[in-house]
Design goal:
Blueprint: E1 3-6, H1 12-19, E2 23-26, H2 34-40, E3 46-49, H3 57-61, E4 68-71, H4 81-86, E5 90-93, H5 99-114, H6 121-125, E6 144-148, H7 152-163, E7 167-171, E8 178-179, E9 185-186, H8 189-195, E10 198-201, H9 215-220, E11 226-229, H10 238-246, E12 252-255, E13 277-279, H11 288-306
Parallel strand pairs: 1-2, 1-3, 3-4, 4-5, 6-7, 6-10, 7-9, 10-11, 11-12, 12-13
Antiparallel strand pairs: 8-9
Helix pairs in contact: 1-11, 5-7
Length: 310
């Protein structure tokens, strides 16, 4: 049977399905054991990764029989796509599988940052009743949502935001400026930053998007605005973001992705002391349901390339 190596967490049902057809090595710790991974790739025809496994030209050279790389997710910045193409290796992301989970994270974060009342439990239990301090939250309806990136995930966010009474602006060079068929408005980056009450990022990490949200971009936003990043850590300049939050030039932020992952205490020191930021460990797209869809799609992609009749 063809050999398949899986280096990071994959849904149990999808692993069980693949075990029926492949000589499978599944070890979520492989991502942190490069020498063993390189050794295992010698005979492998398929490789399955999430976002932490760095699929470099060197790694691909260790797998001369590789035919396909299954990506448990959609971001491809950890995979050398040119090196894969040069070697005739197909790269298959799980397109759309976790869009709903990310969209729910975005809306939940926006709701919390606009009306941060859900952290009062311990104060209440301690005998406090901070009603006055928490009575200045805002409603999400009639706010403007700026989507920077109007792809599958952006569209999933938009559907939910529209249902909650938000107006939608889209910043995406692939869209023509003006009103879309669904009533959203495609605008320039500057207009999207200036007008957005909630600004959410859904773009890949590349040369064009590295530090896309820097001090200049943050300076265009309303002091009352909220920034949410579930894309990639390198898209936002974290030092500039922390400076804006500390200086009350931005109302809040939710950050799920980081330039270095796992992010260390040192990596996050600029956010110390802030109460208007949500930091989560790259889990916006991870739910029971999304994990199942990602696994199912990836298993199908692997079988499609290694078993053409499937």
């Amino acid at each position: 049977m063809p050999q398949l190596v899986i280096t990071e967490y994959m849904d149990d049902a999808a692993v069980a399905e693949l075990q029926q057809s492949f000589d499978l090595v599944y070890d979520p710790q492989l991502v942190d054991d490069r020498p063993r991974l390189i050794a295992l790739l010698k005979e492998a025809e398929g490789l399955v990764v999430r976002n932490r496994t760095q699929v470099t030209a060197e790694l691909l050279d260790a797998g001369p029989n590789l035919k396909v790389i299954g990506r448990l997710g959609v971001g491809l910045d950890n995979i050398d796509l040119k090196a894969a193409a040069d070697r005739g290796i197909a790269v298959c992301p799980a397109e759309g599988a976790n869009a709903d989970s990310v969209a729910e994270y975005v809306i939940t974060s926006a709701l919390h940052l606009l009306r941060p009342v859900y952290t009062s439990t311990q104060a209440m239990l301690a005998g406090d009743f901070p009603r006055a301090a928490l009575s200045h939250g805002q409603e999400i309806q009639n706010k403007t949502l700026t989507l920077i990136g109007g792809g599958v995930i952006g569209q999933a966010v938009m559907r939910r935001a529209e249902a909650m009474g938000m107006s939608i602006l889209i910043v995406d060079p692939q869209f023509e400026l003006g009103i879309t068929r669904d009533g959203a408005e495609v605008v320039t980056m500057e207009d999207g930053l200036k007008q957005g009450d909630v600004i959410t990022l859904h773009v890949p990490l590349n040369k064009a998007t590295q530090n896309l949200i820097d001090a200049k971009a943050l300076g265009m936003m309303k002091p009352s605005a909220i920034l949410i990043n579930t894309a990639r850590g390198g898209v936002v300049d974290h030092d500039a973001l922390a400076d804006a939050l500390h200086g009350n030039r931005l109302a809040g932020a939710a950050i799920d992705v980081f330039p270095n992952e796992p992010a260390s205490q040192q990596d996050l020191k600029m956010f110390a002391g802030l109460e208007n930021i949500i930091l989560t460990p790259h889990i916006a797209g991870l739910t029971v349901e999304a994990n199942g869809r990602v696994g199912t799609i990836t298993a199908h992609n692997i079988r499609r390339h290694l078993e053409p009749s499937s």
